[in-house]
Structures are given as structure tokens and as C-alpha cells.
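User: I want to check something. If I give you two sequences, will you return the structure for each one separately, not as a complex?

Assistant: Yes, each is folded on its own. Here is the first sequence with its structure:
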Amino acid sequence: MKNNNSKKAQNTLLTSLLFSAPGPIITGISVITSYSTTQVADFLRRTIELAAIFASWYVFRKIKNSIDMNESKKERLENIANLFVGCALSVSGTVMLAISLSRADGYTPGGFVLMGLIIAFLGLVANTIFWFRYRALSRHDKSSVLSAQHKLYRAKAFVDLCVVSALTSVAVAPNNPATMYIDLIGSIIIAVYLLINGVIIIKNERRKMMKSKSLAQSLVD
């Protein structure tokens, strides 16, 4: 049963990685054809998150397929993968916030945002499914990698909801004065939410690492 859950988790990680892979390419193309700051932020966010998902898949697979790996090394690898997720969220949020503030004055949202809107909507549906999938998996397998992925996809689903709302306003009413503010507010919400979630994950992982280090030191003493 345990091996079966591990296999399901590995398949879910690989599926989420493959599903996320086209996102940066498609949103990158869409960025070139539009002037939406939310879409630029979304492109950066998807690119950085893809790297974090790859790191989590690689570490989880390495841990589960290594028979002779001791618990200390497993915890260290999990910490590294989760710190990668936390750093990816934090960097993504920081970059997005900087872009949003730099474009808060003197730009007009518009252009062809339909492609980005479709991708964001599909992402909302898929990320919500993965969110609940990782939540179920983390209940059976106490791996912190799965727990971090659960938090990541919860954030991704919320972010996609904001992106869909912002890009819908750009597509429907690009010349409305309120559209610029909706677009900017959408990107700022994304930035702050990702930054907060990233900092929380980093703090939790650093706390675990310090605890493990203190325990190892006490055993030596």
C-alpha cells in the first residue's frame, strides 16, 4: 500500500511537471502580443514555478527510489527541494511586485490577451485539481515535498483566479479607465500572495534544518 501511494505521488508530480511545461512558452508568446502587466507577471511566475516543480519531482523520485539512503540525507534533500519552492515563490512575487509598481503609471493595458486568458483559465481548473490531489496524497504520505506541493498548487489556483479576473477585464473593456487599475491590482495581489507563501515555506524549512542541526549536535555532545 505504501509503495502504491509512493507510485501515485511520483506519477502526480511527473504529470504536474509535464502539464506545467508548456505554460511559460505559451504565456511568453502571449506577452509579446499584449501590454498587460498581469500577463508579464504571469509569465515570470510560471517559469520560476516550473523550475521548482522539477526540483520537487527529482528529489521525491530520488528519495523513494533509494533503498539505502538514511533518514538524515532524506530530510536534507526534502529541505532543499522545499526551500527551492519557497525561494521560487518569493522571487516570483518580488519580481512581479517590482514590475507592477514600475508600470503603475504611464501604460495602457490592451493588445491580444485571449491566449493568456485561455491558458490562465485552464490553469485554474488544472491547478485546483492538483491542489486537492496533493492534499489527499500528503495525508497518506507525510513527505514534506508533497506538503509543499499542496501549498504551491493552492497558491497557483488562487493566482490563476486573479489572472483570469484581470485579463477578462482587459479583454472585455481595454479602454475603460478602471481596467488599468484592475490589471495592476491583479498583479499586485499575485505578487503579495506568492511572496507571503514563499516566506512561510522558507521559515518553516529553516526551522526544521536548525532543529535537525541542534539534535545532531546534542547527540555528538
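And separately, the second sequence with its own structure:
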Amino acid sequence: MSHSTLATRTWILLLSTFIALNGVAQGLSATLSAVDHNGYHITCFGAKDGQVTVTATGGTPPYNYSWSTGSTSSTVGDLAAGYLKVSVTDANANEVIKDITLTQPDEMKVELTAFKYPNDLNISCYECFNGSIDLEVFGGVAPYDFAWDDGPTVPDRSGLGALNYKVVITDANGCVTDAKEKLEQPEKATWGMDGNADTDPQQHYIGTSDAQDVVFKSNDTELLRLKGNGTIGLLGTATEEGPLFRREDGSLGLGDFPDAPTDRCFQLAGFRKFWLTTGNDFTYMCQDQIPKLGTLNAEPVRVITNGQTRIHISSTGKVGIGSEPGGAIEGYRLYVEDGIVTRDVLVKLGAWPDYVFEPEYELMPLDKLRSFLGVHHHLPGIPAANELEEQQGLALGDMLPRVMKVVEEQALYILQLEERLRTVELQLEANGLTKP
């Protein structure tokens, strides 16, 4: 092969490679076109709304498309920013490759700067309107639209009060972000005649910060004095002694409480809320205000002497003397720890067993009574020892009628035996078997 022929073939190979790398292979070519959003392929930072179309010409149709995303159509969408490549082949397997890098705007950020006065606050005085906010936007696509929550559409604000402010910013591509700023003002330094809200008792008060007294006057007359040493003075220079009391017109009096009128009663809630150790006189107490001693919640009442609880009244009304009533048998109200000494005890009973003496009453035959005693080892109707142990004692109101019933039945048994004995004696006497 001549040198010229080799050179020619080399030139043809280089030309073919050049044509393939520049989108031309055997007459096949392709172009890429991406949707433009004000100079960017993606509308907003981080969005996935890019779209690219490849257009093939030359070669031999039909064309096949193979995108780096896996798509095989001529147009791909929902694309994020970044590198994208497509391979186009025609019916003769000629191939051309195209690529593109999709761009997006920088992330849109907002910076709000609130002016501060020498007091290190955004407002110079309480309830003044001299605050301002400067706004600066970074990223996104200019121009921007501004929408403050209180109406204005400008970026920078002035003449503002102590409130919370929010602004929504929209760029040329419709991308949205927002920012907030709170302006603070000094605390209220005076007390208003129409009342005061949001006060801090640790810092706000009516009074003095030194040893001087605080004086309250009405009609230029001193009525109340809070003294620097913590005591309270009443009615200025008045020297009369005695308790305060309320007159019918609502005013306060000082001195001895006036005699209560006989046609007027006193409510306990407004007259006297405590019990005196010297005794209490409720002569003029209203009838619907009966004095009470106890609790209004679930707490028990304890009567204590020498530091120990002597009487305990539970929230359910059970009374314990010498012990809490928790140890009492269920169903009983009073529990006495060490017993009771008394001259007499009245036990409320139900029906008394006098019905035993009625003619129709059927007395248990003696043979059955004997059998019952042999099996149960206690009289009918009388609880066994183990039953009394389970009940933790003996209920007198229940036991007395039972015992009386047994006693009356014993009387009937005795009378029956006496009658039988008399019959036997008469028979013996009739047969001459008894001594004259």
C-alpha cells in the first residue's frame, strides 16, 4: 500500500470520528431543546419540572431514543437539575449522542432586619409605632412580589408597632418562601385608670421601694396606710379600738360590734367563719345557716388530744374511737378500740320470737333435735363458733331474738315432758303401782 493511500484512509477515519462526535453519522443528526424558565431549565431550587426534547434529522427513520433516565420517548419531563444524555439511532443502526446540563436558580432565602433602639428593643416606647424592618432576598429569580400579612406589598417597612409580622415572597418563576419577625417594645411603666393587663407581680406593683409608707385616701382623708414596717393602719388618726364590722350600707365600722337587731339574722358566711375556744353564740344566726363542724371534701375529721387522734370520722361517715374505723366490720358505723363501759345498752330489734307460743307453731321433734345436735354440735338457729369467728364478733341485735327463740322452745319442750310425766304418773296410780 502506497503512502498516499494510507494517508487517505487515515483522513477518512478521522473525518468519520469527527462527524460521529458532533452528532452526525451517515447523515444522522440530532438537536436538544429544553424549556426555559427565565434563563433556567428548572423553575425553583430543588424542583423537578424540567423538560427536554430531542429532534432527529437525516439518517433513515424511524428513530430510537435512549435517555440516561431510562425513557425512550423523544421528550422527557419531571426532570431535576443535573446532567442528562440521550442516544439516537436510526433504522440502519447509525447513532448520535447528545447531552445537556439542566440548571436551576439558587435557593431563595429572605433576611429580615429589624431596627433596634438604644434600649435594645425594636420600639422606643410603650405602644409607640416607630419600628422598621428591612428585607433582602437572595437566590430565586427577580423580580419579586411581597405580601405582608397586614396588607402592604413593599419589601421594607416602617412606622411599625410591637406585633408579629410575616411576609410571603414570590419570585418571577412563581417560587414562594416566607419569613417572620417580631418587634418588641418596652414594658408599660405606668398603671392605667382603665385596668392593666399582662403584669408581672415580681416586677410590677403599687407601693414604695424604700421604707416609706403607702397611703390610700378618699375625699382627701386617709383611710388605709401600709406602713414601711409591714403593719397596717386604718382610718388615719382614729384611736378607737375594736374589731372591724360591716354596716347595713356596706361601710366598715371600728370598735365594739353593735347589738344585733332582733328582727335580723346573720349569715354565717359573712358574720363569723370560725369557732371560738370560749364558746359560740349563734342567737342571731339565720335558720338556714346552721353551723357545721367538719370538711367539705373527702378528707376525714380527726379529734386530737396530746398530739394523738382520739376520734376519727371517715369521709363515708364511719366513726372510730381509739382507732381508725377501717378496722370495723363491714356494715357498721362505730368502732371502739378498747371496749365500752356503760350503765345500760338499748339494742334496736326486729320481730320478737313470741310466735313460738302460737298454737300452729311446729316444734322440732326431740329425736330430730338430738340428730341435729349430733351432726352440727350447736342449737338450731344459733351460729356455730367458726361462723362467729368469720364475722369477727357477735351481732347482739341479731343474736338476742335467736337466743330468745331457743329459750322459748326449751320452755315448750319442758312443758311437753311435764305433760308426758303426768300421764305416766296417772297410769301408774290407776294400776296401783304408786304409793298411796
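Because they were folded independently, the notes below concern the second chain alone. The radius of gyration is 55 Å. The longest strand covers residues 50-57.
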